[in-house]
Structure formats: structure tokens, C-alpha cells
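Known limitations

Files may contain more than one protein. Parsers should not assume a single record per file. Below, a two-record file is shown to illustrate correct handling: read the sequence, read the C-alpha cell line, then continue until end of file.
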Amino acid sequence: MTTAIKLMNSLNTNIAERAQYEDDKNAESSNVVNHMIKAFNIDHTTMKTKHKKEFFEALVASEFVTDFNFINNSVKANARFNVYAMQKAAAKINAVAASKLIAVTSLQNKFCVASVLTCLQNRDKEAFSFDRKHALAMLSKALRFESVASSDLATKFDVTASTASTQVSSSFRTLEALNILQFDESDKARNVVSQVNYDNAFVKLVQEHYNIA
């Protein structure tokens, strides 16, 4: 069995497991399942991916993902990797498979792209450490704290404070699941970035798209 086929099987297995988990957890779970079907290009009748072998071969070549286990990651008691994070992960996987940073302005990509872009533009600053405060300030004018230098933020948005909080949480968990950012385990909330994987395929797409040396 080729690595590409194993990767395809990993997606199918994890989708089936998550669908079963949602069915067992809540009779009204169809919304989550429908989001998964759309995000990961799943046939709603067979619950198998409609992506061709070439899609997975491209992912294998990029070394971006080795499995889809993150779909069933337990993030806290009685909660798994949420649907918003899954949609964001799927958007990045699709971009890497296509070797193109597509739909940068989509909700599934723009906040994660902005986080990666901020890390890239500050990578030579020894004192800079990207964390939740930066991400919140980046997303909402209402959350531009005095401790965050505006010049450190590569891109700025202006969403509501509540939306910013939700988007930062799902973006951070997505970037972690895809081995783009690692977080300081000594920080209980795990919202301080300890390491950026600049060799990651998605990071390289962002770097190329914005012509960052």
C-alpha cells in the first residue's frame, strides 16, 4: 500500500470515527457532519473522500500532513477539534495540495494567514514572541492592547471582540494541529507560541505569495 493510499485511508477512517462520535453525542449533530463533508470533499452517501489519489500524492510530496488524526483530537473533556478548526485545516490542506495559496481572504484562511505572516515579518526580531495578545490585537481594534506594538502586526482587521476570541482559538488550534506553530506547554492556556515551523509547506506558500525573502 502506498503512502498516498494510507493517507487517504486515514482521512476516511477519521471522518467515519468523527461522524460516529457526533451521532453518539448529539442527535442534532448533522450540522458538524455536513461541515466535514463539505470541508474534506466527502461523498455524503459513502462517507468516503472524493479526492483523487493525486491529491494525496501531492500532500505526501509536500510532507505537510502524515495523517488526519487531528480530526478526532481531544482538546478538553468531552470536546474534540471543533468544526471551525477543521474547516481551516481543510482550507490549508487544499492550498498545499494545489501548491497555491488560494482564497486568502476566505474566513477559513485569512486569520491563519495573517498569523503566519506576522510571524514571518518578525522572525528576525529576537525579542518578538507571537501570542494570543498579538492575534487578538490583529483581529479587533477593540483589543489593541498597549503591550502590543501596532508595527508588529503584519495585517489588521476589525471584527468584534467576541468574534476575534473565537477566531484566535480555532486558528491557533489549527496551526498547531498542522505543525505550523508550537505552543509553550508551561502556559496553561497554551496561547504563547514557542516555535514556528518555517519549513512547513503552508508557511512557504504564504512566504511565496507575499514575496518575503
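...continuing to the second record:
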Amino acid sequence: MPSRPQETAREFVQSFQQGEEKGFNFFFREYYAAMCYFSFQITGDKEAAKEIAGDAFTKLWENRIRFDNASSIKSFLFTVARNASLNKIKLQKRNTQREKEFLYLTSETESSIFEKKIETELYGRIFSMLNTLPPKCRQIFNMLYIQGKSYEEISQELNLSINNIRNQKARGLMLLKQRIAFTIFLILFLELFI
């Protein structure tokens, strides 16, 4: 009498291998609920767990010829469910990370777009204003701030004293500050009312 369950399982394996519905139904009834529970324990998502269990049985059916005993079927189902559940978690984490990055970028973009626009406009105006400086002052500003040269390098190239270079720089800064203050006011005023 104890040998009867093994014979039954063996019969269902043979039936399953031959593509018979009764063989498939036996293993589905036997393991589907366990697969759902197992996957839910990993993913924490009931709907995903049901989908994963269903997919595991689809893969089992597609590979039915390979299985010659019930324990290999059970092992296959658990392996497929485990891998799919872990992949689901990885995908959820990636999507969550992408959503966080997107929210961060959109909130930063929306909050700073006005600032970036003003900054860009301001730099454009500053470069335009540099062209309105007296020639020697403009040349020194260009060498100091755009070319990144030191006072000593400028002194040698232009044959000017370092003190003269500092005076030209101070004069240029004073002229630019006056013009920039007005420009910032104008940009802010226009942005608020246009």
C-alpha cells in the first residue's frame, strides 16, 4: 500500500511528459499555491507573485519532456519562481531609483530654471559689457579673467607695472559693478512682468 503514492506521482509525470492535461493539473494543484506564497515572501506583491507562479508553470510546460520525476519538477518550479522574484525586486529597485532621480531632476530643473536663465543672461551681458570698457582695461580683464594669466605674466607681456595692472583692474571692476547692478535689476524686472 505505501508504494501507491509513488506510482501515482510517476503516472502523473508520464502523463505530464506526454502533454496530457491531467498530468499538468496534478502538478498545478500540488504546487501553484506554494509558488504564489514563495514568490510573495520574496517580492511582497501578491499580483506579481501570481504572475510569477503562472510564468513558472508556463516554463515548466514548455520543458515538460526534460522531467522524469516529481522532485525535479518541484525543484524547477522553485528555481524559476526564485529567480523571477529576485529579478522583479531588482527591477522595482531600478524603477524606484529612476523615479527618485527623475523627481529630483524635474524639481531641480523647475526650481532652478529661472536661476539658470538669469545666470546665462547675466554672463552674456557681462561679456557684452567687457567690450564697453576702455581698451587697456578690457585687455587686462581679458588676460586676467578669460586667459587666466597672472599679474607677472601680464606685466611682462604689456610692459606695465603690476600696480598699473591693479589700477586698471579696479577701474574695470567699478565700471562693471555699476553696469551689472542695473542689468540684474532690469532682468529681474522683465522676468517678473513679462
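Parsers that stop after the first record will miss the second one. For reference, the second record is described as follows. Residues 70-130 form the longest helix (61 residues).
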